[in-house]
């Protein structure tokens, strides 16, 4: 009599499943995306989800890391590659106008919108910490330009960084509300007019 073999868990493409989870959280937010929604779009059962990713919060944490590296890295690159804070922030906002309206994925920024109406305090706090880290990077870069003379003495680096962050967050929401890339690019043009005048003889 043949020995009955125990069933093996169905294999699946983990990266593809993570991508689908990212799209779901990005589109609907953390709170409104249920385990049932996730298993449906990821094409796996709940036991496989828990075994591969842990619970919903753990999966969301991995989604955020994946999103930051794949879709949100344009900001880090702009800050690292541009010669001045003004050029870096202008580039960052300009690229956000394109990224936030790309039809290949949900609109806006996952890290800005995913915790809307979320009751999980730790999830909200984790996203807030990431946003605050972004503002700190803005402030550091602006402060360095003040120190080097690329921005006028007395420029309030903290307030200017928060201004840039407010524009970025507003662009995310407007993109979700249907604003086009061209409309957001015009917002960037207006926003950058508020940037302090360069000291005489300095570049952009």
TrEMBL record:
Domain HTH tetR-type: 11-71
Alphabetized UniProt keyword annotations: DNA-binding, Transcription, Transcription regulation
Entries under InterPro entries matching the protein: DNA-bd_HTH_TetR-type_CS, Homeodomain-like_sf, HTH_TetR, Tet_transcr_reg_TetR-rel_C_sf, TetR_C
Domain of life from the UniProt record: Bacteria
A Pfam family of this chain: TetR_C_13
DNA-binding residue intervals: 34-53
Keyword flag DNA-binding: yes
Coiled-coil ranges per UniProt: none
GO molecular function list: DNA binding
PROSITE patterns cross-referenced by the UniProt entry: HTH_TETR_1, HTH_TETR_2
Protein name: TetR family transcriptional regulator
Organism lineage: Bacteria, Bacillati, Actinomycetota, Actinomycetes, Kitasatosporales
